[in-house]
Design goal:
It is globular, with a radius of gyration of 23 Å. The relative contact order is 0.16. The protein contains 9 helices and no strands. Helices cover 82% and strands 0% of the residues. It has 263 residues and is mostly helical.
């Protein structure tokens, strides 16, 4: 008995692009519905929100503060080295302040929160999914979206802008520390130079970015955690995916928001 060979099919790039596009649209729609359900889920608990405010906001403060401090100090050294080529070393305080408020504070703060919080949320919810604790909530007539997802989303939206504001201040103080100890600025001259060119919109735009980045971080962690596969490998893949998607999402959103705010 001879086996019938399958007819050879040439790869169809148009069909492959179509399938990929449909999958992308389907995935985007599913994430959008998940986010809407999470933000508007009933059964919102204020004690659960307070717990997440502490875990996402307060516990992220050390890593965000240290990152901002070293970034502001390094930025002051770099701007001074570059500015001296054009006899423009006096712009160090203004450039550090504007750079921290507009870009470095929100982006680096968001990435640090993504590394710490997105992985934590995905691992916690993924473990609950694997051990069927989420199914138990449904059995007890408790909506997992309101009990687990909504507090994390709102806590991240509320706390990351505060972290960005604190990070901006610490970053400017990092530049002040280098400026007054290494670059020859007096304390009064450095601080007056920082505030003279810093506008309100520079700070507000950074805080808006922080709220968007916080939403992206919590959404990525909740999505991958709630859809984690079975076993330890599934939880590991969910954790990695949450951090990668949150980090890339922050950088992409930063590009879009910067274009909207400053063009």
């Amino acid at each position: 008995m001879t086996r019938r060979r399958r007819p050879f099919r040439r790869p169809d790039p148009v069909r492959a692009i179509g399938r990929a596009t449909l999958a992308l649209v389907r995935g985007t729609g599913a994430v959008a519905i998940f986010a809407a359900r999470g933000l508007a889920a009933p059964g919102f608990s204020l004690p659960r929100l307070a717990e997440q405010l502490l875990r996402i906001g307060w516990l992220s403060l050390p890593v965000v503060g240290l990152t901002a401090l070293f970034t502001g100090a390094a930025l002051a050294l770099q701007i001074n080295a570059g500015g001296e080529r054009f006899q423009a070393g006096d712009v160090v305080p203004a450039i550090v302040a504007i750079g921290m408020a507009r870009e470095l504070g929100p982006v680096l703060g968001g990435l640090m929160v993504a590394a710490r919080v997105a992985s934590s949320i995905a691992a916690e919810l993924g473990s609950m999914r694997v051990t069927e604790q989420i199914d138990a909530l449904v059995t007890l007539s408790t909506d997992p979206m309101g009990w687990l997802v909504a507090p994390r989303l709102w806590a991240a939206i509320l706390t990351v802008p505060l972290l960005v504001g604190v990070g901006d201040t610490i970053g400017i103080m990092g530049g002040w520390l280098i400026g007054t100890t290494t670059l020859g600025f007096t304390s009064q001259a450095y601080l007056s130079g920082s505030w003279a060119f810093l506008e309100t919109w520079d700070v507000v735009s950074g805080l808006i970015k922080g709220a968007v980045f916080g939403f992206i971080v919590a959404l990525a962690g909740c999505w991958f955690g709630m859809h984690a596969g079975r076993g330890a490998a599934g939880v590991g893949r969910a954790t990695t995916g949450a951090v990668v998607v949150a980090s890339v999402g922050i950088l992409g959103a930063n590009f879009v928001l910067t274009g909207l705010f400053f063009t």
